[in-house]
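Example 4.3 (complexes with small molecules)
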Amino acid sequence: MSIEILRESCIGCGKCTTVCPGTLIRLTADGKAHIKYPERCWGCTSCIKECPCEAICFYLGGDLNGLGGKLTVRREKQLLHWTVKKTDGKLETITVDGRDSNKY
Ligand code: SF4
Ligand code: SF4
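Answer. The structure with iron/sulfur cluster bound is encoded below.
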């Protein structure tokens, strides 16, 4: 599991640096987020959900989507739009209402 930070999209807000439980992400001198050891990421997705501009994507394993697929999240108030970009370029979006997170 690992993430990719899209530096051209990062606005340097620092939110990802504060939510990562492993303190894996830092801001570099140019104010962009950077993950030095992506292999240490365990895929909790916290940083992806906090990023306000979809500058972090998550690599999906072969069991979920095939190697190379990527997942991003766009937040819209309580709604989280999870979009998978498949290796063939197709997009698939699932929307989750955050208010339903703890319903079982
Ligand atoms: S997915 Fe979780 S563990 Fe990985 S970099 Fe983001 S916050 Fe850290
Ligand atoms: S949360 Fe997103 S925009 Fe903010 S520093 Fe991290 S990658 Fe950049």
